[in-house]
What we know:
The chain has 25 helices and 27 strands. By secondary structure, it is of the alpha/beta class. Strands 19, 20, 21, 22, 23, 24, 25, 26 and 27 form a nine-stranded mixed beta sheet that branches. Strands 1, 2, 3, 4, 6, 7, 15 and 16 form an eight-stranded mixed beta sheet that branches. Strands 5-9-10 form a three-stranded mixed beta sheet.
Amino acid sequence: MFLSKLLKQHGMRFALSIAIIVLVLLHISGGLTLGFIQKLENFSYDMRLNLLMPRTLDNRIVIVDIDEKSLKEQGRWPWGRDKSAQLVNQLFDYYHINTLGFDVVFAEKDESSGLKNLERMQQQYFKRDAQFASALEKIKPQLDYDQTFADSLKNRNVVLGYFFNNTDENRVGLLPKPTFGHNSFGTKSIDFVEAAGYGANLTVLQNAALTAGHFNPEPDTDGISRKVSVLIKHNHQYYDALAIAVARAYFNNAPLKAEFASLGVSKKYAGLESFNLAGKEIPVDDKVAMLIPYRGLQGSFQYVSATDVINQKVPLASLKDKIVLVGTTAQGLMDLRATPVQNVYPGVEVHANIIAGILDNNIKARPGYVRGAEFLLVLLAGLLLAFTLPALNPLKATIMSVVVLLGILVINMLSWQYANLVLPIAASLLMIGLIYLMNMSYGFFVESRGKRQLTGLFGQYVPPELVNEMAQNPESINLAGESREMTVLFTDIRGFTTIAEGLNPTQLTQMMNEFLTPLTQIIHNNRGTIDKYMGDAIMAFWGAPLKDENHAQHALNAAIEMKAALKNINEKFVKKGWPVIKIGIGINTGNMVVGNMGSSFRMAYTVMGDAVNLGSRLEGLTKYYGVDIVVSEFVKSQTQQFVYRELDLVRVKGKDIPVTVFEPLDTKSALPAEVIDELKLYREALKLYRNQQWDLSEIQFINLQKMYPQQLLYALYIQRIGQFRQSPPSADWDGAFNVESK
């Protein structure tokens, strides 16, 4: 009964919902590949990782950095192997580290000692000189830097690094003993990454080291390193990654044990699911790759300079019993990776993150069987929405969709955080979004008609994004008129009459358009509403038609940006031969009446009231005080992060209560120290002035004028003090200055 009614009333919407569900399920099952869903999955994985990673410093692992300082003090790279041996000896003999891993490959012989040249000289010039031959034999061990380095590696927890090549069959150096041999995995069909060639370490070095591990990155199709191959197959042998090899060394060369699916739902996807290392589980995917458990941004591990280690300048406690990785951040040598947490990330820290994840037993799992869970989740959620959304109004449909979406998110996050299980989420979210949007699109024409009406009414005044917000909440718009707290801004060109007289009508029109356009854009960018253009002036307000809790701050931000934009505007004007312009800006906050006002012939959405008039008066005071922006005390009280210069206490014409006016300077953190000192002296002078201590205040203002001659304000107060000496203020003077002009 319900289904027949649904199909009769909403058959098309139901059919489209089912089509969306089938499309997504085909992707999950592998029957249809939708690349954008995989991109969305990668993005969602990155978001979860960034949101939930610990972002704490891990002191168990230290990176010895071959940095610019080391190259400057120890010489350019590659260093002689004698210096590398010195580094290893210092780490083990002086600092007593536990395990050392090299994110470096030593594939070529070191000839920096000159031994090869001496041997060549012997053959060419001293072939029969027994004394030369004897001396050469004696110093050979000292000049064989490769052997010196190899000696430093022996009987120590040292893991070298090397790389595999998937395309080039060149084979350089000696590979370590394989982690798994030829028949370790029997006849199981496991999709290992296979390598044709490699670049490994010198035989003498590899034989001396405990083992080695590959540092091959395994980026996804978008170039981001989210995982690394635990094992790479070469010549029917299996070799582990550098981080795994270092962890094995740390656990006393513990074996890496393969674990296969055998029980439960995973049996359907029988294959290699994880490795076990000293009781720590390392889950892998169907490519035998593990997810990299990033802890945070670059710097999640302690860095020490290699030269400081060599020179014993690093505190012993910083390295004692630690796992140490040797890598480089020097320009031109640095191994950089694009990662989910940072676009540019040191490769050596990738290894450190993997080791830390193993130590914490905190490697996320993404086994093959999660596709079955995703399939079931999409099917159930999709059918629920397909049956319910067509019968619901937009609000209830939105609530239902959000509830289903949040339910999936909660399940996903709980699995991530507490079960170390990465469940796919992109297909589910995409399906919910598509079904919801498809259902809502049936109301598109009604909504778009309302939006066109709002655009016609407000399109001239407010930016498009605010029109969109109003279209979503039309009930919040009151055209009939109401009183609310808002902020108004007035701006005006100084000396406009003189400027206009020097230009022909075409030039004047073009100049005004090029002046008003960027200022209007700034107002729109700060969520302001243009009230009107008045010749060379702009009147704008904040807090309507949409309410804005930060209306004063947005207005002030717009004023600051206008002041900054004027420099570029004037540069263009000078190139065109137009005069340089200056503007004054006045801002006030208060209760205003806002609404659609006018006549039956023409209506306009505007504001009016005493607070609006005061804003206009404040703009007129900018020239008097020699400043660009004047705001009232009401604006200042709502923008406390700014530092202000108090200009005056003024009483405008027709009002009894004076208003304190200010000039905004800068944010507290950005204000220069000399300005802070100036303000302190100015406040003292102003206090003396209002206490009618004319002589002392005059001295203060004269000193300020000498120190800061560009400030017109100080000369103004000096002049006013002189007037008060001749004509003292009344006994009940409150310190206010009466502004007679409008």
